[in-house]
């Protein structure tokens, strides 16, 4: 039974900090980094880490190497990154911005949720960081975008399209699930959840107008009356281009080809060119295969 952890950290430019964080991620050989995605414009990195989960005789999960691996990464990130000094073109609430657990192979969503809740409790108490749970890790299954809207995640505070420093009140509008209600400006807030696999797919468009890019993103998303099970966000990615960053909540229902076609249609109406989109991670099948290959080579 395998669990995949996607761990999003607000840094991609400080090589010394990234080196410390990656070394922490490699401390336990039973947790394997199968992929990482860095974007210097967004100033954000995502580690995709896989390990197993052990259950007791009743089938209840009791142990996963990912637990301590994630805590080691978090500790290294908080020691190396100061959110007040951070800026980038991608929204974020904290140094460790989001930790998402996904079941792979024979693991279940319940096992991913167990691990998410255990990690959240430790991060909240050990590092005194407010932690909000989402999806299967939360009793009501609340969505992460609901939490983010309440906390002002989607509102840039610098140059109209950038996020810099800590930009929401230090006293949170609602109590977190773990940790204090008072926010450290250097560490921020962390979201932790467990959910079935989602596909992250970014589509570059040749656009320099903020309102136009945001209008296209809104019309693509389910929230804006566009494609069901699709969430999208317009982000600037350089001087002359933007990206429609899409999360496909049910990729077998609405896949990247349909999203690509929708963005191309909407952009054409605005007289804009669109490039072919790209995935920011491997598929679940590829992740499992890469994990097995890496584990096998270590044993050899």
Automatic annotation (TrEMBL):
Keywords: Signal. InterPro entries: Formiminotransferase_C_sf, Formiminotransferase_N, Formiminotransferase_N_sf, FormiminoTrfase_cat_dom_sf, FTCD. Gene3D superfamilies: Formiminotransferase, C-terminal subdomain (3.30.70.670), Formiminotransferase, N-terminal subdomain (3.30.990.10). The keyword Cytoplasm does not apply. It comes from the Eukaryota. Transmembrane segments: none annotated. SUPFAM superfamilies: Formiminotransferase domain of formiminotransferase-cyclodeaminase. It holds the Pfam family FTCD_N. Residues 1-196 form the Formiminotransferase N-terminal subdomain domain. Residues 1-17 form the signal peptide. This is Formiminotransferase N-terminal subdomain domain-containing protein.
